[in-house]
Protein: DNA-directed RNA polymerase
Amino acid sequence: MLEGPILAVSRQTKSVADIPGTPKRYSFSKNAEPIEVPGLLDLQRESFAWLIGTPEWRARQQEERGPEARVTSGLEDILDELSPIQDYSENMS
Structure:
């Protein structure tokens, strides 16, 4: 007896579900095997490392750009763009 909604399949099957009243599934896919999912977590980690400017990220960027290049993180870029804040009378706040 099944209880609750079926959220995921534990393995791929080629047979039709044995649950009465369920609609038949049709697949229009030309791929027989599942497609490999890219490393999405790695992409998020790299973006976060850029945003806060971790030491590891800075070291990698310094190696890629050369020892003379200035490496700035995402927050540094944003704060440099917004600073200094001025009011309408062109005075610094």
Summary: Residues 68 and 90 are 35 Å apart (CA to CA).
